[in-house]
């Protein structure tokens, strides 16, 4: 596949915006400042539709307008003490690139996040000083078939998934000539900032090294170099219902609410990974997943809050118990962890723990730049697993006048972690991009589908 980058534009707010420093709470600081990438695919435009403006001009004009409201997206990060950041709201702008490709939509098959798909997302130059790196980059690629792909790179430190979807939904509304329904809320001090002298009241295992394989001295060194591969699994609505029913058939706590779709699916993935890896019965394993706490704080955060209002849940169990005790047990372990992490006192303790760290760098997730080089976050491969769920996000609301996207999902998955996403499809099914070590993928897929 050949990609031709035609032109790159710096898009700034079309009106003056506040020239301020935006202070970031600990739940922002702990996120990677690098840019997760996503792609939106659109069917070819009708040639006789004269009402559709040039897509690149639509994107630039709409973005210039929206950045007046989301002015931090046009700013830049700056280091402060303790490995932390502030956002300088300085109107330096977002970056929009116009591109063409000789590929068609069909060439990308099931849209698995391969190296080819990653070419449709913007490239970020991390050799620059951080104060020169845009927080938002967009690449609009016209495909040979006439279809479009909008690739997005957005610094994770400025917004979580809910905030990012809110931003692009608003951007699409502007492009369609509609009003923004929810204006962004910028004051991040409404999240609990804690007492500088407060100590965490819980044992936060989410910030500790996860379990290693029994018998290995350096799990990361031995495991993360092993070859991994991608798979795109799909669950129909009927299969999701089967998994949910299966999880709830074994529920032992009378009167408790039914396990959710996420708890059932995540528990199923966790169990299948343990079976495929053929762990020792007593092998400890952790399942890592982010949890939104917008509505769990008292009072809840404002609807337009777009920062990282997420904490990490890390249920732990023995692989043998997960396999032998059935799906209900796995879903229950996930439920217990979510319930604990949902407690307001736990959320406050989570941020107190981070505030108490003189340098937050060792706790920051993902790949990130440090003085003298780069480092990555904690390795969550075998015997552990990391899953990010986009269930509940309205991913298909980004209609810029070109029609709704036919697919939205991650453009890349790290090659050395065992990681998965749960992505809703437009037809109500779920797509699960999964990276796993090559040695275990065939068995994983067999276990994943054998009972549903």
UniProtKB/TrEMBL annotation:
Entry's Gene Ontology molecular function annotations: acyltransferase activity, transferring groups other than amino-acyl groups
InterPro entries associated with the record: CAT-like_dom_sf (IPR023213), Plant_Fungal_Acyltransferase (IPR050317)
Pfam families according to UniProt: Transferase
Similarity comment text for this entry: Belongs to the plant acyltransferase family.
Name assigned to this protein: Spermidine hydroxycinnamoyl transferase
The organism of origin for this protein: Aquilegia coerulea
Lineage: Eukaryota, Viridiplantae, Streptophyta, Embryophyta, Tracheophyta
């Amino acid at each position: 596949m050949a990609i031709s980058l035609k032109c790159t534009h710096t898009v700034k707010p079309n009106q003056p915006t506040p020239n301020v420093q935006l202070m970031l709470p600990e739940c922002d600081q702990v996120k990677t400042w690098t840019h997760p990438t996503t792609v939106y695919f659109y069917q070819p435009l009708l040639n006789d539709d004269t009402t559709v403006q040039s897509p690149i001009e639509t994107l630039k004009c709409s973005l210039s307008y929206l950045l007046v409201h989301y002015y931090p997206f046009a700013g830049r990060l700056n280091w402060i003490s303790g490995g932390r950041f502030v956002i300088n709201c300085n109107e330096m702008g977002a970056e929009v690139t116009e591109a063409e490709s000789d590929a068609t939509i069909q060439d990308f098959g099931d849209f698995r996040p391969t190296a080819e798909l990653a070419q449709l997302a913007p490239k970020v130059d991390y050799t620059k000083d951080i104060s020169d790196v845009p927080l938002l980059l967009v690449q609009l690629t016209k495909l040979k078939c006439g279809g479009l792909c909008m690739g997005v790179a957005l610094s994770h430190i400025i917004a979580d998934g809910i905030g990012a979807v809110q931003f692009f939904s608003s951007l699409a509304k502007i492009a369609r000539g509609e009003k923004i329904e929810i204006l962004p809320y910028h004051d991040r001090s409404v999240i609990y900032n804690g007492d500088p002298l407060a100590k965490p009241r819980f044992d936060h295992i989410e910030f500790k090294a996860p379990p290693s394989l029994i018998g290995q001295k350096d799990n990361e060194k031995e495991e993360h170099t092993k070859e991994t591969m991608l798979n795109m699994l799909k669950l129909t609505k009927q299969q999701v219902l089967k998994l949910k029913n299966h999880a709830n058939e074994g529920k032992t706590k009378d009167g408790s609410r039914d396990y959710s779709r996420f708890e059932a699916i995540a528990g199923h993935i966790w169990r299948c990974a343990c079976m495929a890896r053929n762990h020792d019965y007593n092998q400890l394993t952790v399942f890592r997943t982010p949890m939104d706490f917008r509505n769990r704080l008292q009072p809840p955060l404002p609807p337009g809050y777009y920062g990282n209002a997420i904490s990490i849940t890390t249920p732990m169990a023995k692989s043998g118990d997960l396999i032998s005790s059935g799906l209900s047990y796995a879903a229950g372990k996930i439920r217990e962890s979510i319930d604990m992490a949902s407690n307001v006192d736990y959320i406050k303790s989570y941020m107190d723990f981070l505030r108490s760290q003189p340098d937050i760098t060792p706790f920051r997730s993902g790949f990130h730049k440090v003085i003298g080089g780069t480092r990555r976050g904690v390795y969550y491969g075998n015997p552990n697993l990391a899953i990010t769920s986009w269930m509940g996000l309205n991913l298909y609301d980004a209609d810029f006048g070109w029609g709704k996207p036919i697919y939205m999902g991650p453009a890349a998955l790290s090659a050395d972690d065992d990681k998965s996403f749960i992505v809703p499809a437009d037809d109500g099914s779920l797509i699960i991009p999964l990276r796993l070590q090559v040695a275990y993928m065939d068995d994983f897929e067999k276990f994943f589908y054998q009972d549903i």
